[in-house]
Amino acid sequence: MLRVLGTVLAALAGLAFGSFLNVCANRWPRRMSVVKPRSYCASCGRTLHWWENIPLASWIALRGRCRTCRAPIGWRHPIVELAIGALWAHEAWRFFGEISGSGLLPYDFNYSLTIAIGDCILCWILVALAVLDAENLWLPDWITLPGIALGIVYNLIISALQSLYWFWQQNLITTLERALVAILAAACLILLIRLIYWLIRRREGVGMGDVKLMALLAAWLGLISALLAFALGVVLGALFAVILLSAPSTRKQAGGWALKKIPLGSFLCIGGIMNVLWGERILDAYRQWAQF
What average pLDDT does the segment 72-76 reach? Predict the structure, then answer.
């Protein structure tokens, strides 16, 4: 019962934070405050009533249109809210499943709770960056750089919870060193790809925002998992490119395929989220396959 109740509450909280993320995604690119003014219709400018701001439910009740001017409200709004709600519900289900076991020690509770909170924060950041890059080809430094620092702090906390008292300081130093090496290696990977692309095409193909995003993934997930997220993102991006190139409008444009900009950061974020959900299973499956 506690597991179900906790999961439902986490899902509701995720819907609310997903709704807030939609506000941020609408206003951040225009350098607007996310607090003032109150939510309004982008088409007619009317301030929305409170019941028009209920996450997901209002969009369904209004059938995806403004009540006054009937302007469409994009599908991104319910998708983002559902994504955050589902991701947070998944973490809550996992967390309450772990603490429901018998003989749970305070260490186990604190460790599981920290993992769950960290995963929820990381997923929110990655969904935010995925939306911003998909819509604006923009990965703002004031999200990625603090996100890197937050990932380092998160891993230091995990390390402290895993350490015995007399090894606490030594483990923190080791964790910090590994985090910095992982961040540097992941960033250098994208920088190398950026350099090779420039040498071949003589123009920028990968932005510096992607470099910082890869460093963020390494700060939170570690180097191996960040590389897995990169591989998943590249595969998804390649599939998207194939679909894009097969579109009739693209084929009709002479050389237009070479000028299309693909939001690599969005696919890296999806790869990072997939790593949060199934990373260990994917790595275990790969290890078993590699043994044959």
Answer: 91
